Amino acid sequence: MLRTGPDLRPERVAAARALAAEGRIEDLRAAAGRLRADPELTAEEDLVLGVALAVALTNCEDFPAARAELEQVRPLLPQVSALAAATFHTCVGISAGEGDDGDRAVASIVLALASVESVGEPCRDLALVLRNCGMKLAMEQLFPLAVETTERAVAVAAASGLPPGEWRQAVGYAMLTWAMRLEHLGQEDEARQRWRAADEELAGALADPGIGLLPGAVIRANRALVRARLGDPGAARRCLEESRDTPARPVTSLLRRRRLHAECVVLLAEGRRAEARHLLTAYWQEAAGQRTPPFAEDGAFLLARVAEAEGRTGDALRWYREVHERYGRAQYAVWVSRAAAARLRVEQEALLRRARQLEDDALSDPLTEVPNRRAFDVNLPRLVGDAQAAGSPLSLAILDVDRFKRVNDTHGHLVGDAVLRAVAGLLREHTSTADRCSRYGGDEFVLCLPAGRREAAAAVARIVRAVARHDWSPIARGLAVTVTAGLAQLGPGDTATSLFHRADQSLLSAKRARPAAGSPG
Question: Which strand ranges, in their side-by-side order, compose the sheet holding 483-489?
Answer without folding.
Answer: 437-441, 444-449, 395-401, 483-489
